[in-house]
Specification:
Elements (H helix, E strand, L loop, with lengths): L15 H7 L11 H5 L14 H8 L12 H19 L3 H12 L16 E4 L11 E4 L4 E3 L4 H4 L10 H8 L15 E2 L2 E2 L1 H34 L1
Antiparallel strand pairs: 1-2, 2-3, 4-5
Helix pairs in contact: 3-4
C-alpha cells in the first residue's frame, strides 16, 4: 500500500522521510536521524498529541503494515507529517540536529533578512510558540533581532512548533563564532535633508528605553554576582 505520492518517478523505492523532505515548502526541515526516532525516550509525551501515533511512527520508519485499512490512511498520513514536525523540533536542539541546521544556515536555505540595513543577513526559522497549531513559523534575523514572515506561502503556513522558540538562540550558544554584530543603524526619514521631527522623537524614546533596560539588566547581573559571593 502506498500512502504517499511524489513528483518523482521512483515512488516505490523512495523512503517516507525523503519524500516528505522533497515536498515543496518543506525546505526548512532537516533529516532527523532514524536512530533518534527509534529511541522512544526522545518521543516522550508525543503519543498523547498525535492520533494514530503507532501507525504514524511506522509510516515514518517505512515499516507500516501494508494491510492497514484504507479508511484511516489519510489520518495516518496527516499524523505522520505532524509527528515528524514535533520530533524535528526536539531533534534540532541536539548536537546532530544543530549541525545539520547550521549547514542549511550557511547555504542561506532559510533566506536573507529583508531589512535593507541588515545587508542580506541569513535568517533562521523560529516558532513564536511551542504549542502546535497556534503560530506559524517565522524567520529570525540575528543582526536586527527581529522576526519576519516567510515570503513563500508554503513556508508561511508551516507550524512554528516544528522549530520551537529556542532553536536560533541555542544555535548561537553552541556556535558563538556565528554571532554577528547587532545592527544599530536606522533609516532616518528626511525632508529636504532635515530629519522628520516626529520620527526623531520616536527613535529617542526607543533609545532611552533600551538604555534603561541595559542598565537594569546590568544591575541585576551585579546583584546576582554579589549574592553568589556572599553565599
Amino acid at each position: 500500500m502506498q500512502l504517499y505520492s511524489s513528483e518523482s518517478e521512483s515512488d516505490e523505492s523512495q523512503y517516507w522521510v525523503d519524500w516528505f523532505l522533497g515536498l515543496k515548502g518543506n525546505e526548512f526541515f532537516c533529516e532527523v536521524d532514524e536512530d533518534y526516532i527509534q529511541d522512544r525516550f526522545n518521543l516522550t509525551g508525543l503519543s498523547q498529541e498525535v492520533p494514530q501515533y503507532s501507525h504514524a511512527i511506522d509510516l515514518i520508519l517505512d515499516v507500516l503494515d501494508p494491510d492497514l485499512s484504507e479508511e484511516i490512511q489519510d489520518e495516518v498520513e496527516a499524523s505522520a507529517r505532524h509527528l515528524y514536525g514535533l520530533i524535528h523540533a526536539r531533534y534540532i536542539l541536539t548536537a546532530q540536529g544543530l549541525y545539520k541546521m547550521l549547514e542549511k544556515y550557511k547555504k542561506c536555505d532559510f533566506g536573507h533578512c529583508p531589512r535593507v540595513l541588515c545587508n542580506g543577513q541569513p535568517m533562521l526559522p523560529v516558532g513564536l510558540s511551542d504549542i502546535p497549531h497556534t503560530k506559524s513559523v517565522k524567520l529570525y534575523c540575528a543582526r536586527c533581532e527581529d522576526v519576519y514572515t516567510p515570503k513563500s506561502q508554503r513556508h508561511a503556513s508551516i507550524d512554528g512548533a516544528y522549530f520551537g522558540t529556542s532553536f536560533p538562540h541555542m544555535l548561537f550558544q553552541v556556535y558563538p563564532e556565528l554571532v554577528v554584530p547587532k545592527s544599530h543603524e536606522r533609516y532616518i526619514p528626511r525632508i529636504f535633508g532635515f530629519k522628520v521631527h516626529s520620527y526623531s522623537g520616536i527613535y529617542r524614546k526607543q533609545d532611552n528605553y533600551k538604555e534603561k533596560q541595559k542598565k537594569r539588566l546590568q544591575g541585576d547581573s551585579a546583584d546576582s554576582k554579589e549574592e553568589n559571593a556572599v553565599t
